[in-house]
Design goal:
Elements (H helix, E strand, L loop, with lengths): L15 H10 L4 H7 L5 E2 H7 L5 H13 L3 E6 L5 E6 L1 H4 L2 H14 L13
C-alpha cells in the first residue's frame, strides 16, 4: 500500500541539531565519559576503572574528540609523577542536565535487560 502525502502538505524533516546531537551522543562512551566527569576532574587510569569494558585506545580516541570539541579540557601536570587530568569545560557542563534527564527517562521507561550487568558506578 502506498501512502501519498496530502496535497499542499509540507514534507517532514528531522531537526538537524537533534541529528548531530544523537550522532555525537550515540557514539559509544561519549555520554558516559561526560557523565563520569561530572564528579570532577579525573585521570586516564581513573576513567578506565570507572568505565569497565572501554579499551585504552577507545578511551584515548573519545577523550581526544571531546577535547577537540571543547567539551573537555586536558591538563598535563608536571611530576613527578607526570599526570594528565581531564575536566569538563563550561560547554561540556551544559550537557549535564540533558544527560541527567536522559538517565531519568531511561530509568522510568526502558526496562533493564534481565541478564545485563551495568558498568561499575552506573
Amino acid at each position: 500500500m502506498t501512502v501519498r502525502p496530502e496535497v499542499g502538505a509540507t514534507p517532514r524533516t528531522c531537526d538537524g541539531g537533534v541529528a548531530r546531537a544523537f550522532a555525537f551522543l550515540g557514539k559509544r562512551w561519549n555520554g558516559m565519559l561526560l557523565s563520569t566527569l561530572a564528579d570532577g576532574p579525573a585521570g586516564f587510569a581513573e576513567l578506565t576503572r570507572a568505565l569497565p569494558g572501554i579499551s585504552e585506545s577507545v578511551l584515548s580516541d573519545r577523550l581526544g574528540e571531546l577535547v577537540r570539541l571543547g567539551l573537555v579540557s586536558r591538563t598535563v601536570r608536571q611530576g613527578p609523577p607526570v599526570g594528565v587530568r581531564y575536566e569538563l569545560t563550561g560547554p561540556g557542563a551544559t550537557l549535564l542536565p540533558v544527560l541527567d534527564a536522559l538517565g531519568r527517562w531511561a530509568h522510568e521507561h526502558l526496562p533493564a535487560e534481565p541478564n545485563a550487568v551495568p558498568p561499575q558506578g552506573c
